[in-house]
Hints:
This protein is of the alpha/beta class. The chain has nine helices and ten strands. Helix 6 (180-189) links the parallel strand 4 (170-173) and strand 5. The longest helix is centred in the N-terminal third of the chain and has 21 residues, at 5-25. The mean pLDDT is 96.
Amino acid sequence: MKLPGRLIAKAIEARFKKEVKALKKKGIVPCLVTFLIGDSAEQLSFVAIKQKTAKKLGIKFEFRHLKKTPSFEEFAHILKECSQNPKVTGVLIQLPLPPMLATDSIYNFIPIVKEIEGHKAKTPFLPPLGLAVLTMIKYTFGTGKINHDLIIDMEKDKIFFRNVLKHKKIIVVGRGLTGGQPIGKTLSELKINYLSINSHTYSPEEYYKDADIIITAAGTTVLKPEFIKPGVILLNAGLHKENGTLVGDYCEKEIEKIASHYSTTPGGVGPLDVLYLFNNVIQAAKLQNS
C-alpha cells in the first residue's frame, strides 16, 4: 500500500495554520531565519520549499544568503546577532555547510529555544525528520484515518509506539547529519531499539531480509526486491537524482507488491519533515512568549 504522505501533510498543515492564527491574535508572529552558504541549486530548492510552506502557514520567513564563505568567527557573529533579535523565533542553517564551518559548535551561537532542528543537547525540540517518520508509522499502525490526530505528541504517543513496535525489527539505513542521525535520535528518545546500517556494514542485505520496518536515508539505491521480505514496511527519507529526476533509496515499482506499506519519493516523508520544522518554530514562539 502506497502511504498517502501528501494527504497526511495537508491535514496536519491545516492544524498548524490554526495555531499560527491563534498566536497572531495574541500579537505573536512566528519568524524563521534561514541561512544558506554558497550557490548549490539543490540547497536553494530546499530553501524555496521551506519559504513556500512558511507562506502557507502564515509564518514569517527570512532568507539570509551568504554567497561567499565567511570565516568561522564571522559566521558565529552573524548567527549570534540574528539570534538576539527578539522578533526572530527560530534560526536554521541549511546543510551541508562548507568544511571549515561544519562543526556542531556552530550551534552554540544560537540560543537553545531558537535552534529549532534539535541539534543541541537538552533541546526542547525533536528532529523534524524523525517526527515525520513517526507520523508515517502512526498512520500505518493506527486507525487509518487522515486527520490532525496524526500529529506526534511524544508524551501521549510514547506508549502507543512502544506497544506497536515492541517486537518489530527496525533498520535505519544511513547515518548522515540530515538523515539517519535525526531519525535514530527520535527513535532513541522513545527507547525504541533499531539497527543502524551504513556503507561500512558487511552484507547489509542479510539484515534487510529479516526486517519488519526499513527506514532508508542513504541518498542512493540500497534496497532491491530480493533484499526484503513480503509485508515489510518501507519508509524513505533519502534523495538522489536519476536521469535528472529526484528518486528515493528504492524503486517503488519493484517493491510495491512486496511491501505492505511504502512511502513515495517525492510526496512521502518530505512534506511532513518541512511541516514539523515549522511546528518547532510555532512551539519556539510559544516558549519565548510564555
